[in-house]
Amino acid sequence: KCVSRRPRKCHVNVLTARHLKIRSQRTERASSIHPSCQSVTVEGQLSEDDGCMNAAVRATVRVGLYTGAKVYFVHEGYQGLVDGGDNIRPATWESVSMMLQLGGTVIGSARCKDFRSREGRMQAACNLVELGITNLCVIGGDGSLTGANEFRTEWSGLLADLVRAGKITDEQARKSSHLNIVGMVGSIDNDFCGTDMTIGTDSALHRIIEVVDAITTTAQSHQRTFILEVMGRHCGYLALVTALACGADWVFIPEMPPDEGWENHLCRRLTDQRARGSRLNVIIVAEGAISRDGKPITSDQIKKLVTDRLGFDTRTTILGHVQRGGTPSAFDRILGSRMGVEAVMALLEATPDTPACVVSLSGNQAVRLPLMECVQVTKDVTAAMAQGRFEDAIKLRGKSFENNWNTYKQLAHINPPDVKSNINVAIMNIGAPCAGMNAAVRAAVRMGIIQGHNMLAVHDGFDGLAHGQIEPITWTSVSGWTGKGGSMLGTKRTLPAKMLEEISQNIAKHNIHALVIIGGFEAYVGGLELVQAREKYEEMCIPMVVIPATVSNNVPGSDFSIGADTALNTITSTCDRIKQSAAGTKRRVFIVETMGGYCGYLATMAGLAAGADAAYIFEDKFNIKDLEMNVEHLVEKMKTTVKRGLILRNENCNANYTTDFIFNLYSEEGKGIFDCRKNVLGHMQQGGTPTPFDRNFGTKMGAKSVMWLTEKLKQCYRHGRIFANTPDSACVLGMKKRALTFQPLAELKADTDFEHRIPKTQWWLKIRPIMKILAKYDIKLDTSEHADMEHVLKKRSLLTK
């Protein structure tokens, strides 16, 4: 008998899965019998190999097995579904080991003409019915997902035809009466509406930025203009984010063609940049870029324009398929893993009345959306572009795309006003340095100049503010800062409490009207101390904003901090190398210590991205029995074909169970079975060039902070001076679930554990069970929350009214 694990509403976040099938079996975990859901298959179809599917495949297989289902790979996409035979094979726990670091997809993908015909789909249905498969998970673009929905819609008719043809029995048709489908979007172009990020997009951005950084050095040396063409036939996401992340002078995207006469505008902009002292120009072009009349704008056309009119030494680079390859980023691995979990849960909760859905990402939240609504909105974007409704096309792409475009426009397409505001805004870095700080400073400085403000740089944190290390900072001063790691302004951990008198004097001396504080937990606490000092020092009654920037990701008021993604990728790539070493030597367990203070974010997320067996953190208490269980788990693992182990430990997870203690314990208990090695990663986690995510995140945060300060200054202008003493005049700018929000510092105190320097509530703790399940621990998954079905057509209807 086939049994399906059903109504278990699950929280996990979503977005990935691909060629697999699951037949539910009677197991201890099966909580209910649902006759119409006899098997679950996860099948993925991609017209081309788009990035990083393997994390999704791995998660779907392992969570499927965890729920008591039988999982199948469908190799070569829909072609494998039609051909059947060895293309549809059972998946095991070990079969998805060591795939997280591999790009592409290990189960293959192919274009399939056969599936476009009814005869082909009938053969595919026959293959599924014979194996008892009634649940399908598809990873692909809108074409692949539309095909899956059509397959589901005509399922009953296909079965009837198969019965008439004598290929299946009435009993088989009855048992397979309904097909459930869940889609996950795999596309480096990020061209599917309804999700902020598709699987593979972040990894593609990593490849692009690596090239941009390499090109920038030679361009500066020779004072060249570089034109970089990136993928994006119908969507300009890659081009747009690349332009933000590298501070490009111009970007061409299909959703928003340049205005008439753009040639003159472009040449004027490039000339102005050179006049300001810039030694290079960077122009980003999406391969689908068009003019207002719908004609293609090519990189060769732009090169000829710049060379003929300006005489600049100009080079063109077309990246091509290099963007599709390489090792997946940490973001894509976590995204794929979370989506794979949610996809399985969506399948097992589905009923015959449930529409086909896609699992997608909105901000930091997983959502389920009706598949065909997303496909329709994606088609609406194309229609809007064809009809010249370019503003609508931008909006239909989603809030994330729209915010990126608006930020780019503000930083690159507006000239500083002739009339100054006479407002002085100071910017400072506080706490430990991290990648992405400089991107935030650059964006804040340039946005301030665009608003007509005088921008001041404070060197060496609160020390510099107290000792007068303050100087003007200009547009050209911050050129090229987006790609630089560390802190160009200099930073210290010193708090202001003992220097309030000196700080107030320098605020008055330099006539500072607003303050941007970029940093970690010290920036947050320092901001609180300045707010508390308002009672005594009137000079402190100015608008302030704190931008979280720390590898630890421990600032209250924000789900993410600038710098955490770069550190996470550093840890993940190091763990990849360690696992590769262990795979060669066999029977070896590595203990790796990560940074983060008392916050276990890095250890947990790196554990999920690198496929760790355990991650010890302060927030998730553990004892000697837990350590013993982990050792026994590894002993059992060594009996399988996967003879290696990876254990992560947050640096302050436990005062007594130190890295040395855990290393010695594992070494002693594993004698004769496995040996141990340990690595303390240290400050390498704070260095390096920022990832695309941190550059983009820092840029948007820096720009938004100054826009907020500008509005707040207008509200606080009284009797010819600035006076701000209300709680909402000193805020933390943070990412909360689906939006960037400003939260008063004073209100965040209640949610802060000051002793351990962490927020009292942390969103990522709820996805820790995923890591344990994927490591084959028999634990319960938190089902207190789940991703409800949402709708995307409300936005579409508003635009068409």
What does this structure look like?
With 801 residues, the chain is an alpha/beta fold. 40% of the residues lie in helices and 17% in strands. The protein is globular, with a radius of gyration of 27 Å. Residues 1-39, 42-49 and 794-801 have low confidence and may be disordered.
Keywords:
single chain, alpha/beta, 8-stranded mixed β-sheet, 26 helices, disordered C terminus
Alpha plus pi helix count: 26
Distance between the termini: 52 Å
Oligomer: single chain
Basic shape: globular
Uncertain spans: 1-39, 42-49, 794-801
Q: Give the overall pLDDT as a whole number.
A: 87
Q: Per DSSP, what share of the residues sits in E-state strands of 2 or more residues?
A: 15-25%
Would you count the extended β strands for me? 28
Largest sheet report: 8 strands, mixed
Estimated structural class: alpha/beta
Overall radius of gyration: 27 Å
Helix content: 25-40%
Secondary structure: elements and pairs:
Layout (H helix, E strand, L loop, with lengths): L19 E5 L14 E4 L11 H13 L2 E6 L2 H7 L4 E3 L27 H14 L3 E6 L1 H12 L1 H10 L5 H6 L4 E6 L15 H22 L2 E6 L6 H10 L3 E3 L9 H14 L5 E6 L12 H12 L3 E5 L11 H20 L7 E6 L2 E6 H16 L3 H7 L2 H14 L11 E7 L6 H14 L3 E5 L2 H7 L2 E3 L18 E2 L7 H10 L4 E6 L1 H12 L11 E5 L15 H22 L2 E7 L6 H10 L3 E3 L7 H14 L6 E7 L8 H11 L5 E6 L11 H24 L1 E2 L2 E2 L7 E7 L2 E6 H4 L3 E2 L4 E2 L8 H7 L18 H8 L1
Parallel strand pairs: 2-5, 5-6, 6-11, 7-9, 7-10, 8-9, 13-14, 13-16, 13-17, 17-18, 18-25, 19-21, 19-22, 20-21
Antiparallel strand pairs: 1-3, 1-5, 3-4, 11-12, 14-15, 23-24, 25-26, 27-28
